[in-house]
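Entry 14. Ran structure prediction on the chain below.
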Amino acid sequence: MSEGTNGPVAVPAGTLIEPSMAMALNVHSSPGVYALLLGAGVSIASGVKTGWGIVQDLAGKVAAVRDPDDPDARTKAMADPDAWWEANTSEPLGYSTLLAAATPLPSSLFPLTSSLLPLPSYLFPLTSSLFPAGDARAVLRA
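Output, structure tokens:
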């Protein structure tokens, strides 16, 4: 009940607490169930690579490992990932084919991709409070 001008007033249950506080209560009460989803605007504005930037970086890393004797392999692949990929494989260039080339084991996927997608520094206070407590297990970026 809330206090009105004429005494206590009953309010609908869905309005007892603010929606953001209800979400916080749920996240805290259900550790590990929720993931943090960040939109592209958050990432791009903070300097995190775009999807194409990730393709360029991954292609460069794969090229450097594939041709360690060529000191320019990474730079060339990053400059034109499509051309490098076409010259070196028969599959179309895409995230899944790049990740398959770079991460032969499922356990190696997270360390590689998390290094490509660092969190913006202004999100550290939020994420540091969620993860050690076990409230969230993943950060997803759109």
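Residues 49-116 form one domain. Will compare against last week's run tomorrow.
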